[in-house]
Amino acid sequence: MASEQIIEEKKQGQALVTEQIKGNSKKLFIESYGCQMNMNDSEIVAAVLAKEGYNTTNILEEADLVLVNTCSIREKAELTIRKRLQKYNRVKMDSNRKMKIGVLGCMAERLKTKFLEEEKMVDLVVGPDAYRDLPNLLKEVEDGNDAINVILSKDETYGDLSPVRLNSNGVSAFVTITRGCDNMCTFCVVPFTRGRERSRDPKSILEEAQDLWNKGYKEITLLGQNADSYLWYGGGLKKDFKKASEIAQATSVNFAQLMEIVAIALPKMRIRFATSNPHDMHIDVLHMIAKYKNICNYIHLPVQSGSTRILQKMNRQHTREEYIKLIDNIRNIIPDCAISHDIITGFCSETEEDHQDTLSLLDYVKYSFGFMFTYSERPGTLAEKKMEDDVPLAIKKRRLTEIITKQMEHSLYRTQEQVGKTMEILIDGTSKKNENEWKGRNSQNTVAVFPKTGSEKIGDFVMVKITNCTSATLLGELVF
Ligand code: 5AD
Ligand code: SF4
Questions:
Q1: Binning pLDDT at 50, 70 and 90, where does residue 56 land?
Q2: Cβ burial 342-366 (10 Å sphere, 16+ → b, else e)
Q3: What is the pLDDT of residue 379?
Q4: In CATH, what number does 172-416 get?
């Protein structure tokens, strides 16, 4: 899973395009919160609705249908979405239009009919596996009925649907490879909102990637709640793999093999992936990253805590030592690999000693960047049922500040390491601060900005010499 920031950044970026289908007259306003998976799901929803005559709009007031793709990961995310629903309803009343409002994604799945009963602010509620049912649900709404489908699926991967790219820079795109999660981390609501893990047919993944290349895209991110756990054996839940026929087992495709298939088929396409769960990350994946130049040297490897005791309470399936071993393997096999993390502070029963373990792990790894959160108790999770949320908010926040401060030092250390080097950057837009400068990313996923010279354009791979940096950005100049 990944961050809200990425979506925000895309909204602010320049030269963003949204595909429009000729002849479609109805207007869909769709907003996404949460992870990259939600972004991509909204593109799938736009594809389903394009067939029903909808084009997307960025103007809320002119929409016939307003959909919000929601996130339940922390309480704050849900509160933000409730505020947005109030805003949509105000616009609906003010404009006096027959605008329909719907909730998609994790909150729809979590709250189900409660949305229709309690909120009375929405016309339809659709869970993450039910987007194909949207045309029927919209008919129900037209007929004046409540419309809800929150059934989770064993095999839905939307593999045959071609996403309508929303707010795209035309350079990078997401390609979903797995859905759901079987890991049952005790703090996490995702297994309940997105269901059991299943993988998408590699043929359809390759077709989508090829289609993106043909349209001029230069970078894809293979997405899954747990991408490294990818396993195709003909369809169905990952947990049922052992029951599959011998032929299906023998011809199965794992994540390392999938990466190799894509890397060979599209040798000039940059390939990224997210998210990696440490206990599912196999050493073969590291060898694939090292072997293929077009697989980026960047791994998002959430750790959540540096304390083995807390990791066990979180049901993370690995110890601090095993995580460190994995980090050592990454450093040995891919020496210039950037690594980022997710960390939660103040999980149930976390002591100062546990917190110090997290800080010392940060010192050991010196991550390039990270996403850091205070623990937010989520209804229905094992932690909510069986453990006490006993770390006071003030302490959670103080620990978070200490972790953020340390991470900023390490981010600066990592960007400073790049100064003086010349590296390949994929241009993905104009710098937000200066229209005379380009912005792009290196293989390690760090942003670089540099002056335009007039002969290069968005989507070009260029060589840039890094001359300076901040903790988040490399500053440089083009070399020819
Ligand atoms: N509270 C705080 N952070 C959480 N995350 C997941 N569940 C919670 C929670 N209940 C964080 C984890 C995960 C990231 C996507 O969100 O760090 O990796
Ligand atoms: Fe949630 Fe853990 Fe699955 Fe990530 S691996 S989605 S944190 S249950």
A1: very high
A2: bbbbbbbebeeebbebbeebbeebb
A3: 96
A4: 3.80.30.20
d(CA 403, CA 236): 40
- The alpha carbon of 454 and the centre of ligand 2 are apart by a number of angstroms equal to 45
Of the candidates 448, 452, 453, the residue with the CA atom closest to the CA atom of residue 423? 448
- For residue 304, the 8-state DSSP code is B
Instruction: Name the closest ligand to CA 378.
Output: 1
Domain ranges of the chain: 5-149, 172-416, 422-478
* Class of the domain covering 5-149: alpha beta
150 lines ligand 2 (CB under 6 A): no
Q: H or E stretch including 49?
A: helix 36-50
- Give the containing element (helix H, strand E) for 12: helix 4-12
Which residue owns the Cα nearest ligand 2 atom 5?
A: 183
What is each CA distance from 193 to 106, 188, 374, 429, in whole angstroms? Answer: 5, 10, 21, 34
pTM over cut 0.90: yes
* Class for the domain spanning 422-478: mainly beta
